Amino acid sequence: MKFHKTFIPLILFIAVLIGVGFSFYSKLVMERPKRITIDPTLQIDPDKEYSITVWDYSFPGKVGEFSNYSEFVAAIISEFRGIYPNINISFRLFDENELKDSLHKEEPPDLLCAPYILDPNENRLMFPIGLFLNEDEKANYEVFPLEAVRIDNMIWALPRWISPTLWLGNAKLLRNAGVDLEGVLTKGWTWEEFHNTLVELEKKTSHTSTQEYGLLLPYYPLWLFQDLILNNGVPAMLSTDGQFLWDETSVRDTARFLKQLQETRGFCREPEPFYGKILHLMLTDKIAIMGRTNLPLLKELANNSRELLPLPMPHNSVKEWRIQTDVFYVSLFKNKREKGDDHLKAAAEFGKFLTTGKAAALGGELGFLSASRLDQEAAIKSINVSPLAETFLYTCLSHGITSINLPQELQEKEEKFTKEVLLPAVKELLEEKSSLEEFTVTIIDEGKERFAVQEKPNGSFGFFKRLYERFF
Amino acid sequence: MAKNKFLFLKVVLSFLLLSMILRFVVYALEVKSEFKVPDCESNRILQLKDPLMTGYDVIELEERMIELGVYSGPAFGVYDYRLAQAVTAFQGSKELEPNGIVGPETWNALAGEDSEDRPTNAKPRPKGKITLTIHVNSRTLTVYSDGEVYKRYPIGVGKASTPTPIGEWKIVHKSTGWGGGFGTRWLGLNIPWGIYGIHGTNKPWSIGRAESHGCIRMHNKDVEELFSWITVGTEVDIIGDISHIQVKDNLSPGRTGKDIVKFQMILREAGFNPGRADGRYGQQTIDAIKSLQRYYSLPVTGIAGPDEFILLKLK
Q1: Is the four-CA dihedral A455, A460, A463, A469 of positive or negative sign?
Q2: Which residue of A16, A167, A287, A308 has the smallest Cβ count within 10 Å?
Q3: What is the pLDDT of residues A118-150, one digit of tens each?
């Protein structure tokens, strides 16, 4: 048979069709995470011995009646064994290198307790612990930390403790400046209200020297920029898939407000001379607001003064008001030497035990909120702060957000961007070496160059993807 | 040309020789400083002199003589005419040359029944890893082998005005033959503010008491046994009361002292591990402070200032 030239376009068309079809299949079907299921009737065998390994972070100091964290966990284990005598728990504190090694060797612990979760797509031994929760159990956890670890509609970790990022305020000085503290602690404060507060504080203390009476003391102006932009409609710089989330408007507005704050006398541009005596100055009524800090610090200082209060970071609109939190999670791993689903269930039972009841409530002793709703009140009571401060802790739960850990590569990129671009740019802005526009252009252009930019899927692939998302 | 070539060679060789000599001198000086005489004992001969001899060794002599009933006191720590007379009388009663000069023979005579021949219940070298713990209050030195008690010795410790340094130390030096107040063996500790160690004694009556200048005294037979068991690097924990030690001012890397020992212990109790409480504000202490600062979201400097003191309840 003679090959006819008119077949060439036809062959090319078929080849393109096969290519597009294959890439569509590989993108949307092959990469699709497998649906993981577990037998709902699965039971822990009471006649079988289970050995569960648990790795945990170390926390300093006493935990209630226990002299250290390990003793506290030992008591929790002993209580658990009272219910499940056939589940042996081997507990140890770990460091990051050990975890890396164990993951590399595919020998992770059964349960990992850490202030993050690993990426389930990169750690194939991770198992969605949520499969072992019934609806009532799910409903007992605070919504935002649980939703943060819902990936492909599966819950990959159990939230244990919540640590909100906050500022610290001197109630006496703030009241003197006419601040409605109850209002701020329950409804937050806008950038404008916050700025007015600084102006008022400035008036009250005009007779003193700035050096002695810093009203706002962020450790680094850079942090202040980050804190402000977080409450300006963009909860993070990067999404977990590496998209650069900051836009021109939010960067420019935040920078403008930072400049506005700088013009008030209370803005401390060079905090280094105060290093080592910031708390001392707070406690002696020399500083009205300091940031960024955490609840363990407030708990520690509560004995020194009941006049210290946690404060939310100011926001640009009530709608966008969010309180950033770090969440400690418990995640479950399979063993490469398959031990059976009942083994996973036994480990998950201990995971539930660690994140509810006494174990959850005692987080308060370390200065953390409980992620278990039933144990929240007990946890907040044991943080032992003033009633006014307590109201804010409940506010943290209703306005809290958290984001799961970025993959290692993105974390490094983000850190590099912060160090090489953001920090010098903020410095130049505050030193008036660059204008607001130059600052904005630098941040946005560098961000676009270094990271992917969020775009809506378009073209034929976008059409197929949208089609797929609609039907599957 | 050839002459010039040799000249160059001579210059190079002379330079090398000179640097070798200099290196040797520096080494010799280092070695000498390592073998500096400890602060805790004195091997000097006591006698009537102008000006009069004073010191803690004189007080020890006076106290021992008061105890033996051969001197009526008081113990002022001055070797004066009255003391010399009492020493001469004592020497006469012990068939020593009555010259009022207190040397090894007189000290041995003062030991009397607290002689060196006391039985030690000798034991073989323990098989496990050896660590030592000294309890200042109960005046005992305990040898641990792999964490298990192996043997316990009575010791003498520093008096209230010259206390035995509390802390977590290491043996850094072993030597023999110092004699006199140091007995038959010397085990030097790495205490940064003075030269202290565990040693034998020619004042065996002081074992079980707080009479030394800070060192740990043992019976010679005991220290000989211990000496044969342990190596340089053995850990020695000295436990005692540190409540009286004031931790003040800003503490910064590089500092050494008793207050650093206390600070390290408090840091550890608060859950931030500075390693061994060795009185040195070194890298591990810096790291522990940094952990504390990170945990409480404070600026991470590694320097302990008023804020860190507030958090550690030192203020």
Answers
A1: negative
A2: A16
A3: 888 888 899 999 999 999 999 999 999 999 999
Q: What is the predicted pLDDT for the residue at B224?
A: 93
**Do A71 and A104 belong together in one domain?**
yes
Which 3 state secondary structure label does DSSP give A291? strand
In a domain, A35, yes or no: no
| Residues A381-403, mean pLDDT to the nearest whole number | 90
Could you report the per-residue pLDDT of A402-420, keeping only the tens digit for each? 876 677 788 889 989 999 9
- A167: pLDDT strictly greater than 50: yes
Question: Could you give the CA distance from residue A88 to residue A52 in angstroms, rounded to a whole number?
Answer: 6
Within this chain, do residues A305 and A431 fall inside the same structural domain, yes or no?
Answer: yes
B115-150 pLDDT per residue, tens: 555 656 888 999 999 999 999 999 999 999 999 999
Same domain, A338 and A443: no
| Interfacial residues of A (vs B; Cβ cutoff 8 Å) | 58-61, 68-69, 219, 271-272, 275-280, 283, 292-294, 296-297, 300-301, 304
Cβ-Cβ contacts under 8 Å, B305 against chain A? 275-277
Q: Could you list the residue range(s) of the whole structural domain that residue A300 is in? A: 164-324+406-453
Looking at the predicted structure, is the pLDDT value of residue B206 above 80?
Answer: yes
Residue A20 included in any domain: no
Identify the residue whose tokens are 């010399």.
Answer: B84
How many structural domains are present in chain A?
Answer: 2
CB A286 within 8 A of CB A223: no
In order of B162, B233, B270, B279, B300, the CA distances from B274 in angstroms are 27, 19, 11, 11, 16
The pLDDT of A49-67, averaged and rounded, is 89
Q: Could you count the other beta carbons within 10 Å of the beta carbon of residue A448?
A: 12
Which residues of B lie inside 8 Å of A (Cβ-Cβ)? 250, 270-272, 291-292, 295-299, 301, 303-308, 310-311, 315
What is the pLDDT averaged over residues A368-377? 95
Q: According to CATH, what is the number of the domain B130-239?
A: 2.40.440.10
pLDDT: which is higher, A321 or A52: A52
Confidence of residue B268 (pLDDT cuts 50, 70, 90): very high
Q: Which of B40, B173, B213, B215 is catalytic?
A: B215
Task: State the Cα–Cα distance between residues B231 and B129, nearest whole angstrom.
Answer: 11
- CATH of residue A68's domain is 3.40.190.10
**Predicted ipTM of the assembly:** 0.80
CATH of B53-111, one of 3.20.20.70, 3.40.190.10, 1.10.101.10, 1.10.10.10: 1.10.101.10
For A303, phi then psi, to 5°, come to -75, -30
Residue with more model confidence, B226 or A336? B226
Catalytic residue among B40, B199, B213, B219: B199
The residues of chain B that CATH labels 1.10.101.10 are 53-111
Domain presence at residue A281: yes
| A169 and A315 inside one domain | yes
Query: Does A361 share its domain with A267?
Result: no
**Does any domain span residue A11?**
no
